[in-house]
């Protein structure tokens, strides 16, 4: 048989391509319609694979949702890490927190990350995933700033939970705002003032 000139993909590459396609389509549908209103049939139809192929890669819709959510958490964490990456630790903290607010309220992210995730995964599992990404970054930044004397020494874990909770609540509100850009700017200003209050008195 004559060659088509195109390299033949290995089974591992085919599996990886199928997984990427399933995650991409599931992410699009979950973001647009919400987890509860998306069926596995819709996902396989949009992807062009069989339901059997889907079950070969994922145990079910919740497992596929978890893969989508992990991808989103990693993307948001990367954006936060890149925010003012070459600046000092204080600037990185403020920029990172503001970047989290902006990224987590983007269309296509907030429905999955903030609205559906706690109910689909369960509160405990959702908090564990959040703790391994955004909360971990926040804790590292605050710990460094305390060590450098830029913010007041205090127990870091309660502070991390307080700030993380405040930002998640703000993100949920912003995601439903009718004027997201203006409200986001005002929220970032309020957040920056909140962070400034952690610094020692002049």
UniProtKB/TrEMBL annotation:
Q: Which GO terms describe its molecular function?
A: DNA-binding transcription factor activity; transcription cis-regulatory region binding
Q: Which InterPro entries match?
A: DNA-bd_HTH_TetR-type_CS, Homeodomain-like_sf, HTH-type_TetR-like_transc_reg, HTH_TetR, Rv0078-like_C
List each copy of the HTH tetR-type domain by range.
Answer: 16-76
Query: PROSITE patterns, from UniProt?
Result: HTH_TETR_1 (PS01081), HTH_TETR_2 (PS50977)
- Entry keyword set: DNA-binding, Transcription, Transcription regulation
Identify the DNA-binding region of this protein by residue numbers: 39-58
Transmembrane region(s): none
| This protein's name | TetR family transcriptional regulator
User: Per the UniProt entry, what species is this protein from, by scientific name?
Assistant: Phytoactinopolyspora mesophila
């Amino acid at each position: 048989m004559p060659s088509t000139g195109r390299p033949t993909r290995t089974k591992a590459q085919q599996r990886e391509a199928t997984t990427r396609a399933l995650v991409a389509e599931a992410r699009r549908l979950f973001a647009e319609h919400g987890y509860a209103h998306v069926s596995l049939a819709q996902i396989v139809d949009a992807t062009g694979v069989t339901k059997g192929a889907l079950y070969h890669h994922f145990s079910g819709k919740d497992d596929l949702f978890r893969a989508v959510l992990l991808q989103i958490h990693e993307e948001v964490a990367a954006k936060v890490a890149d925010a003012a990456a070459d600046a000092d630790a204080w600037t990185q903290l403020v920029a990172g927190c503001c970047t989290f607010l902006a990224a987590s309220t983007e269309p296509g992210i907030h429905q999955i990350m903030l609205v559906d995730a706690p109910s689909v995964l369960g509160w405990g599992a959702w908090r564990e995933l959040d703790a391994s990404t955004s909360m971990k970054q926040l804790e590292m930044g605050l710990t460094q700033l305390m060590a450098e004397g830029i913010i007041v020494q205090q127990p870091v874990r309660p502070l991390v939970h307080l700030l993380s909770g405040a930002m998640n609540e703000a993100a949920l509100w912003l995601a439903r705002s009718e004027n997201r850009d203006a409200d986001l700017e005002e929220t970032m200003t309020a957040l920056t003032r909140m962070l400034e209050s952690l610094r020692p008195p002049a």
